[in-house]
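Here's what a typical entry looks like (Cytochrome-c peroxidase):
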Amino acid sequence: MSCSNEKIETYVSKPSLLQIPKLFEDNILAPVIPNNNLQTIEGISLGKKLFFDPILSANNTQACADCHALENAFTDTDRFSDGINGAFGKRNSMPLFNLAWNYDEKFFWDGRSFSLEHQAFLPVTDPNEMGSTWIQVEEKLQQHPEYPELFQQAFGTSTIDSTLVTKAIAQFERTLISSNSKFDKYLLGETSLTAEELNGFNIFMDETRGDCFHCHGSDKNPLWTDNIFHNNGLDTVITDLGLGAITGDPADNGKFKSPSLRNLAFTAPYMHDGRFKTLNDVINHYSEGLKNSTTIDPLMKKVAQGGVHLTPQDKADLKAFLLTLSDYEFINNLNFIKP
């Protein structure tokens, strides 16, 4: 009988730091990255593969990427996304970018998810999205010829469970950083804006005109959202309770998360229910289409007049500015395409 001194090598995943854009470093805090799910090369790669793989759905036809397409800044062009077996939800798919800077860690339009990892957990079992169970998904992944080894490399175990699946997807989603719009380049002194775009920015920042910055930030907030929930005057009678259905507080009825104004050129239709097909429709809503209700946000100061009543030229200039927030480099980033 002989003894072997041969050592069994354990694969150690390699750390991968997020590439923080300069404007983010200058103006906002560090990204939110949980200590129990640090970014690694292997974890990100695994999360990307899972994001594009329909194996997460009950009948292997529906992937995360089907409702969150790169060319649309990781949303889609339908008012309500087409899920498994042709089922439709009741909300418009939210775009996915700059998720690591969501400091309140509340995701979805109604804030029902408490972390990016939890956000990735819910669609799998939603009957209108992937319609599966985590037991079924875990079994399929465990029997797959590649995934056990990929989980071993990313997390040090080949035993696959929902926690590790969602950790991997969250790692990939945190890499979806959008920071190279025309307006970003303008702030960095790399380009100039037209007179119309500059006037549109001034309208955006003017409390007596556009008054947009309270909910969507300013040139000092590269996220272009406050990530807070507001009732922005869409309906007099509220049928979709939004945040109110989650908190149980009637004062929250009709409140939805302010989306980022980045990438508007790619993310139509707009609002939580996709009711507005065009950016012109959105601007017209705030200009003369506001509707009062019991939970209307105090920031909608001119609701009694129906809105801020912009001139046709001001509307055109505001639209011109908003489109400067679109990041064409982001939607063409080869790091985000299907593996």
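Residues 205 and 213 are 6 Å apart (CA to CA).

More examples are in the samples folder.
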